[in-house]
Design brief:
Mean pLDDT: 82
Number of domains: 1
Structural class: alpha+beta
Radius of gyration: 21 Å
Strand order of the largest sheet: 4-1-7-8-9
Number of helices: 2
Distance between the termini: 65 Å
Number of strands: 9
Low-confidence stretches: 2-23
Shape: globular
Order of helices and strands: HEHEEEEEEEE
């Protein structure tokens, strides 16, 4: 075996080890969901969503209105993805044209394990509400507590913004 061949194998092994180390230090992927539903939650009639972002540079969940016409009333993603450290939402009230935006730090608000949980938000005038929906189903549709999000009619959910969780 020539010295060049040994050197090339050594470099290839070093490159593989470096790539594996880089993967190990990347964001942890957790199977969970992020979504919003303006029609079912009742805010689509009063507000127009202009932008949202769930998470940081690794987040696949972000959108901005390019023509200032809004980005739609519902959207969702479900599967392995990094748990976001923040949620940013920008919206406009249809009646007044006022624009609001809110950035919520999620680091101390989300459960330790987001597996199979869902993060969603509701707009009510100038106020943003953020909820975690658990995988635990209610014994009956509409059983209390029913929150601002329609998902709380069939699944256990709790508000994490603006109020602290009450679990």
């Amino acid at each position: 075996m020539s010295i060049q061949h040994v050197f090339a194998r050594g470099l290839a092994t070093l490159g593989l080890l470096w790539a594996l180390a880089a993967c190990a230090t990347g964001p942890k992927l957790v199977s969970h969901a992020f979504s919003y539903e303006g029609w079912n939650d009742g805010w689509a009639q009063q507000a127009e969503l202009l932008a949202f972002s769930y998470g940081d540079q690794y987040a696949p969940t972000r959108a901005n209105s390019r023509d200032d016409k809004g980005i739609g009333n519902s959207w969702g993603v479900n599967g392995p993805m990094p748990v976001g450290e923040f949620l940013f939402v920008k919206w406009r009230l249809k009646a007044t044209g006022e624009v609001f935006e809110q950035r919520v730090d999620l680091r101390q608000r989300l459960p330790r394990d987001m597996t199979d949980h869902e993060l969603t938000f509701v707009i009510d005038g100038p106020q943003l509400y953020v909820y975690v929906v658990t995988p635990e189903r209610k014994p009956a549709y509409g059983a209390p507590p029913v929150l601002r999000t329609w998902r709380s009619k069939f699944a256990q959910a709790y508000e994490i913004f603006p109020n602290a969780p009450s679990r």
